[in-house]
Every structure is written in structure tokens, then in C-alpha cells.
Amino acid sequence: MKYTKIICTLGPASQTKTKLSRMLSAGMDIARLNFSHGTLAHHRLLIRNVRAAAAKLGKSIAIIQDLQGPRVRLGVLPKAGVLVEAGQEVILAYNKKFHPKILHILPIDSPFYRDVRPGHRIFLQDGLIQMEVTHVRNTLCYAHVKKGGTLFSHKGLNAPDTFFSFPSFTSKDKKDLLFGLRQQLEFVALSFVQRSKDVDVVRRFCKLHGRRSRPHIIVKIERPQAVEYFDEILDVCDAVMIARGDLGIEIPLQDVPIVQKDLITRALRVGKPTIIATHMLESMIEKPRPTRAEVSDIASAVVDHADAVMLSGETANGKYPVESVRMMHDVIIRTEASRYNDLPLDFFTDQAKNLGDVNFRSQLDSVLQKLSSQKPRALFVFTPDGQLARMIARYRPEIPLYAVTHSRDVYHTLFLSWATIPILAPNQVFTRQRSFVLRMVKQRKLLHKGSNVTFIFLNIEGNLAFEMLQV
Length: 471
Description:
- It is a single chain.
- The chain is an alpha/beta fold.
- The protein has 3 domains: 5-69 and 168-336, Phosphoenolpyruvate-binding domains (TIM Barrel); 72-158, PK beta-barrel domain-like (M1 Pyruvate Kinase, Domain 3), CATH 2.40.33; 354-470, 3-Layer(aba) Sandwich (Pyruvate Kinase, Chain: A, domain 1).
- The protein has 15 helices and 24 strands.
- The chain is elongated.
- The model is unreliable at 352-358 (pLDDT under 50).
- Residues 370-454 form the Pyruvate kinase C-terminal domain.
- It catalyses: pyruvate + ATP = phosphoenolpyruvate + ADP + H(+).
- It comes from Candidatus Kerfeldbacteria bacterium RIFCSPHIGHO2_02_FULL_42_14.
- This is Pyruvate kinase.
């Protein structure tokens, strides 16, 4: 069994039910929709098709709505692009149109002139073109080109030294999120978050408009400000995506692997799922076989204890979407079978976490000791709100973790947690839910007859309890 989850971005290369069925069979666990691209009509088609494909296979699928956020972009430029050369002075102009006779004035679509200061760095074209702000006058930002190249329309701009004051939750995001709420999508990912208040704004919006369901909030770590204020952001989000594309431009590239490890560890200690994203199998957009570096990148994310790894262009636009999923699946299986991703039992010793009145440090230690001696084939965790399952999943017990809940919303959000297989059960007392689960195990033949399993639940006193039996 594969424990680390696979997230696949959907797009033109993966929009048919047939292709989506093959991706699900190859190992896709969660679908992602990138709202920086595509129309609402196309996203609606993708949602309908992936849900239909999963239902036909007898599976459930959770969907992440990834909002565009306040991306600063260049305006409209000539189709052939505009060449800027090292040593040249340019002007980044808000609300201006490009004029072919004034090549050094470049239009931008956001009022970032309010926040930039002399000495701030600016990166364009994925960091290949570099500038430094010399001064700001009215709505014009004057910059000195340090590394030149050709600029094209609507390309993103990164300013790592600048704390943006304009809202992180844009009017486009609001429109898109209303669509996502109507479609009852399980997760929403927020782009270019800087502080915890950015998450609070979106959660209030979901509470106000999410009549039938409220998605869990994934925070994308893309800016140095998000790294600096990570602990306060972690307190208010439901999960973390380490989006290494923009992050690798905004912080020194050589720092990304260590930052990745640090953020995963900090999230793991508090039971918040983590996703590693960007360029994991980038070469498979065009080629049927990845590079050794890409394979090592996936293995490193597994060894670092990420809950999920993500494919972007590989499955959205690439030539080999199914093969990309299968390759990622195979790398995960091989890595998880090794000893290198094992989590030491004393990993949480200095970070005891409480859930209500339950001291997880002492009580889960007792459960883990039983697991090590009894070696059950599976865990069944009864978790109305999903929290107990997520807290146990952080210990990385390398056996299937079935999370039993009566909440349909909780059921879908648990798909993101490591090794967790959600089960939707009737809203009944523990003994009846246990009987329901045992019948389902037999009907679906989830385990071999005579297998030892452990049931974990909170008893009526609110204490952690467990039972061991054969099924």
C-alpha cells in the first residue's frame, strides 16, 4: 500500500473520463484545479468528469481549488516580446499601455509601486531576468536591469524584499471561490500568503457564503514573509503546500531544500498535513522517462515525511499524464519500503500535544507500544471531526489507517492525510459504528480473515481508548 498521497493537476491533457480513470488507477488520490488558468466552464467540466470517473471505479475523490491570488504581472507586450539588457534603465508603470516607440516603459497590472523601495530586487521570467529598484515616482517604479532577457505579456513578477499591502484575497479569487463553494470542493489553496490575517479573511468569507460546506484551507508557502511568519500561519490553516516554484525565486535556491525539511517538521509536530509541489517530474511533460534528480526529489519528500506530493504541468498539459502518476507511485512505494522514511518513536517527546483533556504524549505512547508488539494489520480510528485521525497519522504508523467519521465534509478532507483511508459511517454510538465497520470490512474484503486490527476512539470520559481484535 502507498501511504504518501498523490495530487494531480487537471487540464487539457487529463480532462476526459477515460484518462482520469487511468490516472486514478495509477495512483492519483486528489485532484487539483489551477484557477490561474482556464474558464469556470472548463473547471466545471473537470469537476464533473473526475467525480464521475472516481464513482465508476468505486472510489471517492477530493478536489483542491487553487486560487490565483495577488500575482503581480506584466501587462500586454508585443507578441515577439521586449528585450531588456543588462545596464539598461526601465520603468515599471501601473495602469499604462505599452508604446512601441518607448520600449523602456513596461506596463504592470498591480499597484506595487506603493510598497517597493530603492534597493528592492525584482525577478521576472522565473528569475532569469533580474532588476533592482532605484527610485519610485508617483505610479512609476524605476529599475536598473542587472540580468537581461526577453519579456513577454502577463508574465509574473517576484519582489522578495517587498511586503505587499494590497489584499491577498482578490476580486477574482472571491468570484472563483464562490464557484468552488457551489461545487462543494473540499479544499481551497491560498496563493502568496504573507501573514495569518490572509487566512482569516478567507475563512470568514467561507463561513459567510459556504451554506452547504466549508472547504479546508491550504496555505501555499511561496514568499519569504510566509517563511518568517510560518508559525502564526500554521496556527490558522488546515494544511500547508510548499510551492517551490515561486519560493525558489523569492529565497536563495540553495536554501529551498532545508526550508522544505524545516517546514514539514514543524507542521508534522502539530498534525497539519504538508504538500510538496512544483517540478517534481517536470521532464515528463515532454519525455516518457524522468531524470534521476526528479526521482530523488520525490524520494526526498517521502523521507522528509510529507503527506502528499503534487504533479502540475505533468498531468495538466504534459504528453504523459498517466505515466507520470505511475512513476510517482512507484518511487513512493520503493521509498516507503526502505528504512529511511521511518519516524523515530521519540520524535514528539519534546512537543507533547493535547487534544482537549487527552494527553497524546502518554496515551499514544501506550498505543504505539501495543502496536509494536501486536503488529496489527490496520488501525481503525473513530474521529467525528477528523482531528484524532490526523494526530495519529503524524506518528506515521506504517499500516493502513482507516478514519471512520459520520461527516461527509470531514470524510473528504481526510484524503490528504498520510496513510489515511476515510470511511463514511452512520452517526451512531461507537459500538454500532464498530459493527458497521466490521460488516464493511467483510463485504469489501479489505483484510484477510483472521487479521489483527486496532480500534482507537475517545470514550465517554473523553480519554483515548483502544481495542484489539481479529476480523
